[in-house]
Amino acid sequence: MKNREFERIHEKEAHGTLRFHLNVHEFTSDPSRAERVSPHWHEEYELLCICEGEGSAQIGGRRFSFAAGDILFIDAGCVHSLSAPVGTPLSFYAVDFGRDLIDSYGNDDIRQKYIHPQSSRELRFCNHFSSGDEVWPQLSAALSELLLLYRQGISGNELLLKACLLQLWHFLSAHPATNVSVSTRDDRNAALAKEILQFIQENYASNLTLSHLASRFYMSEGQFCRFFKSQIGMTAIEYLNYYRIGVACDLLRREGALSDTSVSSVAMACGYGNISYFNRVFRRYMHCTPREYKQKNIDS
């Protein structure tokens, strides 16, 4: 489990550079965990192509099953996560890009017809494309070409890379979601989900309880549980434990060869007052005890 998976839920750093706002990353997930990409969001759009495996994606308040070859679109600022059955391999590549890379500088037809309607939520793109969908071959071909160009290097390929993005945007615009309406309530729910995740991230070390979380956001426990599950795809307590164990892994690696009492210190630092409960939760997520995990990292 790597620190980057847990260090923030809002990725604030730009993907790519200010002069060319594009980044492509290829990722093979850890099959020992169900959660492969933790809930987070960023300011860039993302197109994600599943290379191997199957699982489910939580995108906003909607959940989609996916398989190898499927393509996912994640809107800018949308909370999303990926999960897969334990033991199932899952790999993908993701294309992240800023709106500035495809936008026009003037209020021309491109902006009026294709950029502004999407950014203002008048036009909503589909989140999931499989090989049986009419537009999938065009999306897949453009993504494959973009990946090939990116691997060759951005320098000298800027125009071709931008052309691929414009092709992708064209096909997304030409095959919009037709059965999904966006309401002011959806926007409020998305904003509240981000606020809750941020609160958990900032207060994980304190004695957070379901009652505390629910009252903090002016809901009953039942309302809070239903809302969190619908927006994030896991329960609030599952997410809290997931985040805490990630921090614990970071601390255990940092502790190195310190004394045996360091495991207790790590448990307390991550909000676990009961060392036995901490050990049980740690084993559930990491498939080893905290001491075994620490020893493994000392040996390596």
Question: What is the structure about, briefly put?
Answer:
The chain is an alpha+beta fold.
What does this structure look like?
- 45% of the residues lie in helices and 18% in strands.
- It is an alpha+beta fold and 300 residues long.
- The chain has a 5-stranded mixed beta sheet.
- Strand 5 and strand 6 form a beta hairpin.
- The longest helix has 20 residues, at 184-203.
Task: Provide the descriptors you would attach to this structure in a database record.
300 residues; alpha+beta; 45% helix; disordered N terminus
Helix/strand order: EEEEEEEEEHEHHHHHHHHH
User: How many strands appear in the DSSP assignment?
Assistant: 10
Radius of gyration: 21 Å
Taken from the alpha-carbon principal axes, the silhouette is globular
Q: Please state the structural category.
A: alpha+beta
Main pleated sheet: 5 strands, mixed
Distance between the termini: 14 Å
Unreliable residue runs: 1-8
Give the strand content.
Answer: 15-25%
Task: Please tally the helical runs, counting DSSP H or I stretches of 4 or more residues.
Answer: 10
Strand order of the largest sheet: 1-3-8-5-6
- The average pLDDT is 89
What is the percent of helical residues? 40-55%
Topology diagram in text:
Blueprint: E1 10-11, E2 22-28, E3 35-42, E4 45-52, E5 54-59, E6 62-67, E7 71-74, E8 80-83, E9 91-97, H1 109-119, E10 128-129, H2 136-152, H3 158-174, H4 184-203, H5 210-216, H6 221-232, H7 236-255, H8 262-269, H9 275-286, H10 290-299
Parallel strand pairs: 1-3
Antiparallel strand pairs: 2-9, 3-8, 4-7, 4-9, 5-6, 5-8, 7-10
